[in-house]
Design a protein that fits this description.
443 residues; disordered N terminus; mainly alpha; globular
C-alpha cells in the first residue's frame, strides 16, 4: 500500500548518520584556510584538541536533552521547556539566523571546487548558487527520506577521494609527519584557525529538529551521532596527514587558489584532482540539503507557538513537509551568498555560540527542575561537573572571537563581527514586536 503524507516513512540509522555527517561536516572541504593560518603542526593540534573542548560537551548535551525530549523542534523545544517561551524565541531566532549564514557558505564552496573544471565559473557565481539553493529546496520539499538517500550517496563521493589522496601521499611523499604544536603561530592566527575548525565541527544540535521524523529516535540518534563523529574526526586527520606527508606548499592549497583538488593533483595527477574536486562539489550539495532540512523545522515549531506567522506552518498537501518554511529560508539564503566565505564563517560561529549557550543552561535547569525524569542517556556528571564541562566550549569560543578581532585583518573582520552582533541584538526587538502583536503571550 502506498504511504500517505499523514503517516510518512521515518529516517533509519544509516540515513540519519549520513545526514548528521553532512549537517556537521561534509568532509574536510573548507579546512584549507586552517593550514594557511597555523601550518601543518598547528592544524594537527587544533584538530586533535578542539573536538574534545568544543564538540564533546556539545554532543553530550544534545544526546541527554534529545533522550529527554525526542520531538520535532529539538533545541527550541528544550529551551522552551526549561526557560520559557521568551528564551525559546531567542534560541529559535539566533539559530535560525546562524543557519542562514551556514547555508550561504556551501554554494560558495561549490563554486570554489567547480572552478577546477571551469575556471571562469566565478563570473557566474550568483546564478550557479541560486540553482543550488532552489534545487535543494525542491529536494527538501519532496521529503526527509530523499534527503537521507542523497546524503548517503554524497558521503561516498566525499570519502573516497581523500582515501586515495591519503594513500598516495604516504606512498610517494617524503615529508615527515609533524608533531602537533602551534609552532610559533600568533594569537590572531590561532583565533582564526579555531574559527575554521569550530565551523567544521558545529551543528550537532541541528540534527535534532526533525526527531519526530526518526525511527526510534533516542537509540538511533545515539548510534548515528557516534558514527558521524568518528567519521568526521577520521576524515579530517586523513586530510591533515595527507597534506603534511605530501610536502606540498601550504600556499598552493589555499582555498582561494583551488584548495584540496590541488593537493589531489599534486600527489596523484589530474585524475585525482578531478576526483577530489568532484567530492568537494558533492560535499557542498550534501551539506546544503542536510542543513536546510534542519533549519526548515525551526520556523514550523515557532509558528505553531504563534511566535512567527502561521503560514510558515503550512505543509505540502502531498509530501507533508513544511514547504513554506523551506521556501522562506531559501529566499533569505539567496541574499546572503553575496558575502565572502570568511565573513560567513565568522558570523556563523558568533551566532551559533549564543544559541548553544542557552542549550547548556537548559540542561542545567532541567537537571534541577526534573532530576528524576527518565533520561535514557545521562551525562555521568553532577551539576557542578556540568558547569565545568560547559566552560570548555565557552573558553574556545572566547579565544576564537578575541583572536579574530585582534588579527591583522581586524579591519575586514569588523564588518562580519559587527553584523553578527547586530543580528544577536535583533532578537530583543523581534520579541517585543511579537509581544505587541500577541499581548496575551507569557514570557
Amino acid at each position: 500500500m502506498r504511504q500517505t503524507s499523514k503517516n510518512p516513512p521515518k529516517l533509519r540509522l544509516l540515513h540519519l548518520a549520513a545526514i548528521i555527517f553532512f549537517t556537521v561536516s561534509g568532509g574536510p572541504y573548507g579546512l584549507e584556510s586552517l593550514f594557511a593560518e597555523v601550518g601543518n603542526h598547528g592544524a594537527l593540534l587544533l584538530l586533535l584538541v578542539t573536538p574534545l573542548l568544543w564538540d564533546v560537551p556539545t554532543i553530550l548535551t544534545v544526546l541527554e536533552l534529545n533522550s529527554l525530549m525526542p520531538i520535532t523542534g529539538g533545541y527550541y523545544q528544550w529551551v522552551k521547556h526549561a526557560l520559557g517561551i521568551r528564551w525559546a524565541f531567542f534560541e529559535g531566532w539566533w539559530t535560525w539566523l546562524y543557519t542562514f549564514c551556514d547555508l550561504a557558505i556551501y554554494p560558495v564552496l561549490f563554486i570554489t571546487y567547480a572552478a577546477y573544471f571551469v575556471p571562469d565559473i566565478a563570473h557566474y557565481k550568483i546564478p550557479v548558487c541560486l540553482a543550488i539553493i532552489w534545487s535543494s529546496a525542491i529536494l527538501n520539499i519532496i521529503g526527509v527520506i530523499p534527503v537521507g538517500r542523497a546524503s548517503l550517496i554524497f558521503s561516498v563521493c566525499v570519502l573516497i577521494p581523500f582515501l586515495f589522496a591519503f594513500g598516495l601521499a604516504f606512498q610517494h611523499g617524503g615529508a615527515p609527519i609533524p608533531a602537533p604544536s602551534l609552532n610559533g603561530a600568533g594569537y590572531s592566527s590561532l583565533g582564526m584557525g579555531l574559527y575554521y575548525v569550530m565551523w567544521n565541527f558545529l551543528g550537532w544540535d541541528n540534527a535534532t529538529t526533525y526527531a519526530g521524523e526518526v525511527n526510534r529516535p533516542v537509540r538511533t540518534y545515539f548510534i548515528s551521532v557516534c558514527i558521524a563523529f568518528l567519521i568526521t574526526l577520521g576524515i579530517y586527520f586523513i586530510a591533515a596527514l595527507a597534506v603534511a606527508r605530501s610536502g606540498i606548499s601550504l600556499e598552493a592549497i589555499d582555498i582561494e587558489k583551488g584548495g584540496f583538488p590541488v593537493l589531489g593533483a599534486f600527489v596523484g595527477g589530474r585524475w585525482l584532482g578531478i576526483l577530489v574536486a568532484t567530492g568537494g562539489m558533492a560535499s557542498a550539495l550534501g551539506l546544503y540539503s542536510a542543513v536546510l532540512l534542519s533549519v526548515s523545522r525551526v520556523p514550523q515549531v515557532m509558528a505553531d507557538d504563534r511566535l512567527l506567522p502561521s503560514f510558515l506552518c503550512t505543509r505540502h498537501p502531498r509530501f507533508g513537509t513544511p514547504y513554506v518554511s523551506i521556501i522562506a529560508s531559501s529566499v533569505i539564503v539567496s541574499v546572503l551568498i553575496l558575502f565572502t566565505f570568511g565573513d560567513l564563517v565568522v558570523m556563523d560561529i558568533i551566532l551559533y555560540g549564543a544559541g548553544l549557550s542557552l542549550e547548556f543552561i537548559a540542561l542545567l535547569i532541567l537537571r534541577i527542575k526534573e532530576p528524576d525524569r527518565p533520561r535514557p542517556f545521562r551525562i555521568p556528571l553532577g551539576r557542578i561537573g556540568l558547569g565545568f564541562l560547559f566552560l570548555l566550549p565557552l573558553a574556545v569560543y572566547v579565544l576564537a572571537l578575541t583572536g579574530a578581532i585582534s588579527s591583522e585583518s581586524s579591519g575586514r573582520m569588523a564588518v562580519p563581527v559587527t553584523l553578527a552582533i547586530i543580528l544577536l541584538l535583533s532578537a530583543a526587538p523581534a520579541w517585543w514586536l511579537t509581544r505587541w502583536r500577541k499581548p496575551h503571550m507569557r514570557s
